[in-house]
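Below is our example:

___
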Amino acid sequence: MSVNSLTVITNVEFGKMINAASAALAANADKINKLNVFPVPDGDTGTNMSLSMASGAQYERDALDTNIGALAKATSKGLLMGARGNSGVILSQIFRGFANSMADKETLSARDLADALMAGAQIAYKSVMKPTEGTILTVIREAASKANKVANQTDDVVELMAAVEDAAQQALNSTPDLLPVLKEVGVVDSGGQGLVFVLQAFYQVLSGDFNEEDMKAPDNAELDQMVKELHAGAQANTNLDPADIKYGYCTEVMVQIGKGTTYDHQFDYDEFYKHLAQLGDSLLVINDDEIVKVHVHTENPGEVISWGTHFGSLVKVKVDNMRDQQQAVIDAQREDEAQAAKISEMTMPVPETAVIAIAAGDGVAKLFKSLGVHTVISGGQTMNPSTADIVDAIKASGANQAVVLPNNSNIFMAAEQAIDLADVPVQVVKTRTVQQGLTAMMGYNPEAEASENANAMSDMIDDVKSAQVTQAVRDTTLNGVEIHNGDWMGIIDGDIQVVADSAEDAAEQSVEKMLDDDSEIVTIIFGADTKEKAANKLAKSVSAIDEDLEVEIHDGGQPLYPFFISVE
């Protein structure tokens, strides 16, 4: 380790600090995700913080004015627009405090840096209606407090950041003592852990111990994002005849380098890449010391897979028939065009108040649209939308006012940020589940003002109970319930109340817990990997409990959750 003595932070160091923080969060996103209290497959604090910080770093790099005050302001704006999930929003508020404190600064002293941390803590606490200790808020407060004390003793920013990093780590270690659920599950706060990585990166840059090459290192999500971008352009071309696709199989392989019984080649990137380049096109290869991830379009997926086995053990293999996928895109486009033609024959005025809903699954989106939702932003189970996504949807609606249905408590803060950023009045109805969102639409009046709609829609969700069925991704104990990796859970109104051996059993037991004498309607929304036959079987079980119940079944197509169930 080479530790510098530094009394002034210039714009150069500041830019490195921001980008190092972004790289650190990207590299550790999976680790942070695994600290989620609930053992659900969509625990995404690390992903949200990483993408939020990446947006901030991009704005910092694009800034034309290069004094520190301007760079801090650009970083803050990028974080705000890219903020995803509650953790991402709180991180954006910390940097908002930084920017406010650093306004008009050309350089930063130790005192300036301490003041910026203090301002970040103050703004972060104000951004949360009911601040909870044992979270990211505790970590920033303790780190800022330490910075304030040390700045009275030294003008060395490296010494100050070393103390800040240490204080942040100690605060993180204390979070289980402040928040009992963390102690029960045996984890530290995930958002707090993300902030510790940010502050560690700051210290490493200032001390000279951060390898700038790490800023360019591939993270676990990089290949997936590149593949999405690669496919996005191709999928937009609905005129392409499936028969004209030269390489028909989209093949993805992940190999653990140097492991397994088939390993007989020392990994060499150039050799590995060159051979695959001969097998197809759209080739992407990303690797670190342990894993190599491959994406290629080929006519011979078997040879791609076989090539990978020479370099290690297969971790993941995925092969999609792109000709079939393209035909499905064409069929869907034709169906949409036919539907659009029918709609164009009707008078469809822009509503006074448009509803923007966040949900995953084509079927769920269609349900929302059928009830009057103007725009459905894809997300919730797979990826939380950013504040900018929500603001853009509001603007695109053309309506004079808007109501946002987050349908996930982790989207509340990003949705509320849109209130200040949108050009029209916006109300957020705090729907925690898709089921609550669908029920809220029963109170929607497109010609009423947003505030009137929000009140009516909020009243509707008081009478609905919601259950989500999903599979545990790790062993844990929560609220005294022992849960094992692979167990199926019934999450009823935010609490894990059922643990079962199958999704069907978890769903049936969840319904039994939700039913009471006033129950009239049970709605079953089955997911992407669930067959309608399973939903029909569940419906029969529900009817057997009470034959007077009205049971509805819908194909939601949502990922990760075989069943969404509501009881009204």
The longest strand covers residues 312-321. The mean pLDDT is 88.
